[in-house]
């Protein structure tokens, strides 16, 4: 790629242009490289027999019009999501996380995320019958859902939308206002009936996590995972005992929003904040305070020929017993995520990023996680 500078340009402008060119080339190398693709490098999910890739893909945005996609869903977005799925599979990322409440079947052309994921899997298997896909979905602990049968009924509805006879992981999306013991009994029933290979929870505090672990243990069923908000700028799981408890009990921590919904990618600046609901969370003021951390992430990424996104994800993987599930809306994002594994930050870099991140106050998390 040639760079042309007019005779009136200053030397500083010339160096800035070269710098921009190098950054573009570096990003292209990092995103497009197959050197660090996942290549079926898997880890056990907790103490279960299930193995999944070290990094998964979150499907929250697929079909959604309530938080993502600027409140609309159309064929272009559908094709982009399908491309994200296919590119993830091609790079060896075969673990996908969805939920019954992701997407919608009602307004603005939206569609349920489970329905989309099931469709993508079906189309993939038509081309490659032996393809291996690990699906995780979740039960919504709504106040009117009572008892273990409500879990089984919801799971069967999810399986219908996914067009699958079973899923690899079924999770309680959040603690219920009541009925949590019945929900856990339902998870155990799902395992015993062969509808799921492993079970987990999400947004569970240390106390709730220990209780769920013990209740399932009585039936000889391991609690495989706890899915929580966790990133460089949201390290509450390290502070509230959740991460330590997961490590102690052999429960995998699945990290959602691992790149802080894009805030850690370097894409957004105080002058260019995200649109939609994210703009109310990641404000220009917040992004201004975040810039030193983002700059350091970029600097470290240049050392490894990695993008800021890949560095932020690798930081989580380096914490051990953590499986990040960034959301992929298109093929480019999915391909980039594949470059987050197969290498590791050194201890000095890990500590330096944490130290810088402590200067940023965490944004709000899931409402019930501290209960």
Could you describe the 3D structure shown?
With 371 residues, the chain is an alpha/beta fold. The protein is built from 13 helices and ten strands. The strands form two sheets. The protein has an eight-stranded parallel β-sheet with strand order 3-4-5-6-7-8-9-10. α4 links the parallel β5 and β6. The N terminus is likely disordered.
Layout of helices and strands:
Blueprint (H helix, E strand, L loop, with lengths): L10 H22 L9 E3 L6 E3 L3 E2 L16 H16 L4 E3 L15 H15 L6 E6 L7 H16 L4 E6 L7 H13 L3 E7 L3 H12 L5 E7 L6 H4 L2 H8 L2 E5 L21 H4 L2 H21 L3 H10 L4 E3 L6 H8 L8 H11 L14
Parallel strand pairs: 3-4, 4-5, 5-6, 6-7, 7-8, 8-9, 9-10
Antiparallel strand pairs: 1-2
Summarize the structure.
With 371 residues, the protein is an alpha/beta fold.
Series of H and E elements: HEEEHEHEHEHEHEHHEHHHEHH
Range of strand content: 5-15%
Number of helices: 13
The N- to C-terminal Cα distance equals 55 Å
Task: Please identify the structural class as seen in this structure.
Answer: alpha/beta
Give a short account of the largest sheet: 8 strands, parallel
Poorly predicted regions are 1-40
> Mean pLDDT, as a whole number?
86
> Can you tell me the overall shape?
globular
The strand order across the widest sheet is: 3-4-5-6-7-8-9-10
**Radius of gyration, rounded?**
21 Å
Describe the structure using short key phrases.
single chain, 371 residues, alpha/beta, eight-stranded parallel sheet, two-stranded antiparallel sheet, 13 helices, disordered N terminus
